[in-house]
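Aim 2 progress update. The chain analyzed this quarter is reproduced below.
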Amino acid sequence: MKRILLSLFLLLVYTADARQTRIDGLGALSFPNSGSEKAQDAFLRGVLLMHSFEYGPAVTFFRGARTEDPSFAMAYWGEAMTYNHPIWNQRDLEAGRAALNLLGTTREERRAKAGSDREKMYLDAVEMLYGDGSKEEQDLAYMDAMARLHAAYPDDDEATTFYALSILGSKAGERDFATYMRAAAIAQPVFVRNSDHPGAAHYLIHSFDDPVHAPLGMPAANAYSDIAPDAAHAQHMTSHIFVAMGLWERVVEANIRASNVQDAERAGRGLGPNACGHYSSWLHYGHLMLGEYQEAESLMDACHAQVEAGQGSPFYFTLMRARHIMDSRNWSLTTRWTADMGIPGGSPPGDGVFGGPAFTYNLTNAFGSLMLGDPSPAESMLDGDWGDGQGRSLQLNQLRGLHLTRSGRVEEGLGLIRAAAEAEAELPFEFGPPAIVKPGYELLAEALAAAGRDASGAYREASSRTPGRPLAMGATHPGIH
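Predicted structure tokens:
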């Protein structure tokens, strides 16, 4: 009888306290819990930051919450949650387990410290992420646990939004339209109820950030930067929709804001700006799409300087460099931003469909030299061993086909370029700037036009896959052609 009365009391508390808590700069949420009053601010800040994928600061606040209330089980849940990054397909297994072990050494011990049946279900869910089995198995088990939590507490917006995120995370970062629309259907009612909820806006953007569905994401994109102005990722995230719709001015504005917030946070830690990062990469791409080459070159120079100093990301440097040279068609820039990125050999590690820094760097040089009339770098690259990988094979076929067309074997070359474009079309849609640095149908259209063939169909396909991209619409640039 006492347990029944306690459960009824906690349900009443949950219902009575289901009011919005707004924290300036991060958004608003309703997340009643069993923690002490002193722990609430830190805990809720941690949850809001986690919704905006600001995982590092979120860890600090969850640890602050447990300092204020060492018995607060949900503070340990929160820290464990920060070590799993679903859409990025990343997880720190050991750190997540260590956070849970601070609450108790066994699952049963941890569960017994939860403040309510509802909190027990939150703990049950996070346990799924750090148990035995592969990450894929754990992600699916976590999604199932969140589905049960959402079904048991349909009015709990945190259960709902984290359930939506778990659906997105169940695909290991690969877009599947049916799955992503299912996640959107879960998150949308929360956004309607609370238009300042960062998780609802964020996960809707992720659900819709492809050229087919992007218009559905505009309400969330228009809202998210104002919901969480203190979260750099929130400022950047809006540009996922803007890129998919070709709204380049807004891409630039969003990533300037994101970079400013990030730079301020880094300055507080005694660090300088990150010129070779996610936000600077997207900002650079926006400038390229607007034909703002002076601004883009300044960003490229800063990134190159950091790489030369051993401080920048080779991944972002080689992507920015490739996009700049390919999209400006200023092939001589291959001699301006040079670096030691490695040579062919063995099976170099890949980065998704991009192919990895060494591959991208050498591929860009090969394209540039070929366009300037020197086929030797292309021939050297085509003779090299770049290992397996669909992205690498596809882009090597692009290079091989272009080399053939420029050496007089036009039909054979066009066939390879077309096959590469069709292979790219079979890949899941990527969010953001093109994953294949030179989009396949765009290259096919250019090759067809150069051969005096009808390129209109290829240009239409290119424009549908990368809306608003000037080269996909047959535009020319003032670079060297």
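Residues 313-473 form one domain. The chain is about 65% helix and 0% strand. These observations will guide the mutagenesis experiments scheduled for the next reporting period.
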